[in-house]
């Protein structure tokens, strides 16, 4: 099962969103928060911090855990780990 960590990143009462292209197999053509797949042996928190560095060049110091969502999307079963940071 795939596991994905996402971060709702806020600053000055704004939320950072990105647009997923129409060619994406899961959740095409929609707004999303930054994040990505966990690597083998990686914790959800570590994955969230790594993805922020890789995708945005942001070193997140603190994450606040929000929830975990288990669902099925176009690629099969998936677990989303949701965090917040400012």
From TrEMBL:
SUPFAM superfamilies: Nudix. CDD domains: NUDIX_Hydrolase (cd02883). Residues 1-86 form the Nudix hydrolase domain. Its cofactor is Mg(2+). Keywords: Hydrolase. GO terms for molecular function: hydrolase activity. Gene3D superfamilies: Nucleoside Triphosphate Pyrophosphohydrolase. PANTHER family: GDP-MANNOSE MANNOSYL HYDROLASE, MUTT_NUDIX FAMILY PROTEIN. Belongs to the Nudix hydrolase family. This is NUDIX domain-containing protein. It comes from Enhydrobacter aerosaccus.
């Amino acid at each position: 099962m795939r596991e994905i960590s996402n971060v709702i990143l806020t600053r000055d009462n704004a939320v950072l969103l990105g647009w997923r292209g129409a060619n994406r197999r899961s959740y095409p053509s929609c707004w999303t928060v930054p994040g990505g797949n966990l690597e083998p042996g990686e914790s959800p928190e570590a994955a969230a911090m790594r993805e922020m560095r890789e995708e945005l060049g942001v070193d997140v110091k603190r994450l606040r855990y929000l929830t975990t969502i288990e669902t099925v999307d176009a690629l099969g079963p998936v677990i989303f780990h949701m965090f917040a940071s400012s």
